[in-house]
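I trust your eye. Have a critical look at both lines of this record:
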Amino acid sequence: MPENPPLPTTEVGRRVPVPVSAADDALGKTSHDDDGGAAAIDLWGQQQKIPDPFVWPQADAQATSARDLDAPVVDVAAAMRGDRAGTRRAAEQVAAACASHGLFQVTGNGLDPALARAALDGAADFFRLPLATKQRARCAPGDMAGYAVAHRDRFKANLPWKETLSFGHRDHRVSGSRVVTDYFTSTLGSDFEPLGAVYQDYCEAMKQVSLAIMEVIGVSLGVGRSYYRDFFADGCSIMRCNYYPPCPEPERALGTGPHCDPSALTLLLQDGAVDGLQVLVDGEWRPVRPSPGALVVNIGDTFTALSNGRYRSCLHRAVVHRERDRRSLAFFLCPRHDRVVRPPPRLLLADQAPRRYPDFIWADLARFTQRHYRADARTLDAFASWLGDAATSASESPDN
């Protein structure tokens, strides 16, 4: 018998087998780490009740609206091939969505269906691995990258009913290396190189779509096609695989609580017909149904700052189901860590509006959300206040 026998898989497109060793399999069934990770895994098999830390306040877990979100479907193929007329049409749709709820769907994105399927299947196989294998990539406190169960290392209440695997991405043409593939091999082992290669290719595809969307957004705001594209060309983005297990009390739990993403854009690929993403519009949580071949795109806090508040961050949540599990892939477009986030002068001049947010660097916002503040609907305002307090403290320091 081979040392690392693969999980059973069905060949679908580019699907790759995920390895697991016999030793890890035995350990995964019995180990209980310091933060209760194994115990959390056991929760997914419960049939009647969820523990108190997973119960959300009624205001956050309010019932889902019967009306789906009316999100525009934007064809970005024109922007990706340089068609100006098509880009202007897409810009009009994006402007309408971003001035209201901040979410739209994107088609014509050029994503290879086989690559999309391989990335979704790879996530499914990874989350089925024994706990000990997944814990090789355990997320360190204060770090965005790694494997996490319900964020139990960060929070004690209002825990999300999910598992995640997150890792960073930089375009290999900028970084000089294939950082995603390297992450999988260095963290999980050389047997995971094929899976790392799938996510490397998936992230590269998401980056190209993101830059095309930024061209469309630039046109919609009147700052030109290249401004935002150039701003993010050398960015340090984040990829996250999400798994939402079946939940015995879905009406009291949430896969992800109400929040706005700290990133600039989020590109979400939903798996199959199982819905879960919802957006708050006019006091109602409206579902965003999966659409074959489409990516869901939402505005995040960083771009709200870059647009001086013109485009709103999308307030959203994820719900869970009693009998069905769900997977999704989220690509968070972010600037380079040391890039100063400020609106373009051309936008400020055209708006004749005062600055809504102070200048900041992306690394500070990322650090704030990981170490000081749990992302919610008020993250950007709380961060701006925190920056002001930090500046005041620094100016009052005896050293100054």
Q: What stands out?
A: Residues 1-13, 21-36 have pLDDT under 50 and may be disordered. The first strand starts at residue 73 and ends at 75. Residues 59 and 390 are 32 Å apart (CA to CA).
